[in-house]
Amino acid sequence: MTDVISPFLEGAVRTATPLAFAALGETVVERSGIINIGLEGAIICGAFGGLVASTHQGTWLAIVAAGISGMMVSMLFAFFVTRLRSDQIITGTAISLLSLGLTGTLYRQLYGPAGSALTTATMPVLPVPFLSSLPLIGSALFSQPPITYVLYVLVPALWWWLYRTHAGLGLRAIGENPEAAIAAGIRASSTQFAAILFGGFMGGVAGGVLVIAQAGTFAEGMSAGRGFIAIAIVVLGRWHPVGVAAAAFVFGATSALQYLFQTMGWDLPYQVFLALPYVLTLLALAGIAGRVRAPVSLGMWIQRG
Amino acid sequence: MSELAALALIGDMLVRATPLILTGLAVAFAFQAGILNIGAEGQLLIGAACSTAITLKFGHTLGAGIIIVSLIGGSFAGAAWAAIAAELRTRFHVLEVISTIMLNFIALYLVSFLVRGPLQEPTHIYPQTETMPLYARLPTLLSGTRLHAGFIIAVLAGVAGWWILQHTAAGFRLRAAGKNPSAAKIAGKINIGRTTRNVFLISGALAGLAGAIEVHGVTFALYENLSPGYGYTAIAVALLAGLNPLWVIATGIFFGALEAGASALQRDAGIPVTIASVIEALIILIVLAAGSIRSLRSLQSSIVSNESTAEIA
């Protein structure tokens, strides 16, 4: 049984890693009352930035470069949303479209129209001594590329920051009651701007993980809707870092069902597995409806603070 | 450029414009009602799939009449696909932005399955359906071009859409629901749930029709990459038109020219065709910056805050 379950869990964690980075970043953004549909754009920009950087630099620097790429494109979103007060959904859609087009164009220009042969060194798996030999979950959780381990630190750190620091309280206050937050002297739009940059960085890292820790190559549109899935994960995780990480794992597990079915020899059209995460998103969002509460001012325009 | 080549290019622009006008109308209708339907792409694909299936199955019994049956069938299929998002929004409060994007991916994989499974061409080599018989193809409008009768349908849909929005009670309800749902509900006694559902259905039907026309006028078969993202370009088309159906005809032709031009540039100058989506995105951002469509949803809250600021000042 272990030889079926372990690869399945490993696959689940692997697929969940980029989703978790993107969703944790978006959690902070949404807690400040902003919904960034342009997250998809940050991911694809991160993937491309990571690829370009990885041809010159080591894997860690490439991941940082990926994060910065995601942050740069999110800065555009932040400017439109917090300064020009544009509609968040439409701006986000435009940013995604822009990023998909821009990365596709640059990729074809830099690496030729096909460009498919381009591969890059990937981050090797680094088993954690002792922990990785734990039964069942050991190899799934602790025999991964080290970028995954960053998540294990990030989740509690984010929780602590959001719930135990003054700055975290201020950020949540903007999302819940902007007027009161502004009256209390919190600089709302600057905080939101910073939150969007953070979310963009995390989205970029997610893209970097796809290229540098997983695929080892770039493909046009390889973000494949992960930004939108991440936004759904934030809802399922109830805007809480621990919940979001758990929801990301559930999604990873759904995608990894493919491996499980293959090992079990069950034959289903492969498109079923490809469509499954999207179907699950819809079912989960419908199922959770009415039982979760979003930050009150999410998606709304607020007065500049 | 020779006269013939110029004519062919104009034909290509209008051929490209046809699905863009229809999906642009789909988006414009939805956005006018405050519904952010990003799902035109999926609705178009489902329309195309259903339309192809109907034609291949019943074409031999109906002859040319199959075109009409199939276009209607495609519209219904697009509407049905949009109805999923409508139910999710009205019944379960699922953000339609998320649900329609998810449905786009599901539609894509559904088509991918169909063209490799039940609808695959008889030799089972290529991932596409059988090619449609000649009688099932939309007539060409201009000889020497690929321009087909679907363009006329798209233009008529634009005019009809404008008339419905501006001159009928249903159009008024739709716009009222979009501008201020609570006022529309309380002062206007408008059933927001029903209006939302209807708008989703109309929007989906328009996108489904776009898909049906595409298979009857251009591709004559169903395959995966049938749409180069018409449903996403449609957002730029609708926004640049200020969500006005008559203007959608113009902006649809503009973007059709842009995409046909981009394809020609790729062929002749090696400039990647993806540059077209960069331009589209920049146009959306410029329109946003110009503020003409600022805030479909938060207009109300900005008015309130501006007024309170004025009072304090």
Give the secondary structure arrangement, pairings included.
The complex is a heterodimer of chains A (305) and B (313).
Chain A: H1 2-31, H2 39-54, H3 59-83, H4 88-111, E1 126-127, H5 137-142, E2 143-144, H6 146-164, H7 166-176, H8 178-183, H9 188-215, H10 226-236, H11 241-264, H12 270-288
Antiparallel strand pairs in A: 1-2
Helix pairs in contact in A: 1-6, 1-9, 1-10, 1-11, 2-3, 2-4, 2-9, 2-10, 3-4, 3-9, 6-7, 10-11, 10-12, 11-12
Chain B: H1 3-32, H2 40-62, H3 66-92, H4 96-114, H5 150-167, H6 169-179, H7 181-186, H8 192-219, H9 230-240, H10 245-269, H11 275-290, H12 299-312
Helix pairs in contact in B: 1-5, 1-8, 1-9, 1-10, 2-3, 2-4, 2-8, 2-9, 3-4, 3-8, 5-6, 5-10, 6-8, 9-10, 9-11
Description:
The complex is a heterodimer of chains A (305) and B (313). In chain A, 72% of the residues lie in helices and 1% in strands. Chain A has a single domain, classed as ABC transporter involved in vitamin B12 uptake, BtuC (Orthogonal Bundle), CATH 1.10.3470. Chain A starts with a helix and ends in a 17-residue tail after the last helix. Chain A has 305 residues and is mainly α. In chain A, helix 2 runs antiparallel to helix 3. A two-stranded antiparallel ribbon of chain A has the order 1-2. Chain A is built from 12 helices and 2 strands. Chain A is globular, with a radius of gyration of 19 Å. By secondary structure, chain B is mainly α. Chain B has one domain: Orthogonal Bundle (ABC transporter involved in vitamin B12 uptake, BtuC). Helices cover 73% and strands 0% of the residues of chain B. Chain B contains 12 helices and no strands. In chain B, helix 2 runs parallel beside helix 4. The N and C termini of chain B lie far apart (63 Å). Chains A and B meet through helix 4, helix 10 and helix 12 of A and helix 3, helix 4, helix 9, helix 11 and helix 12 of B.
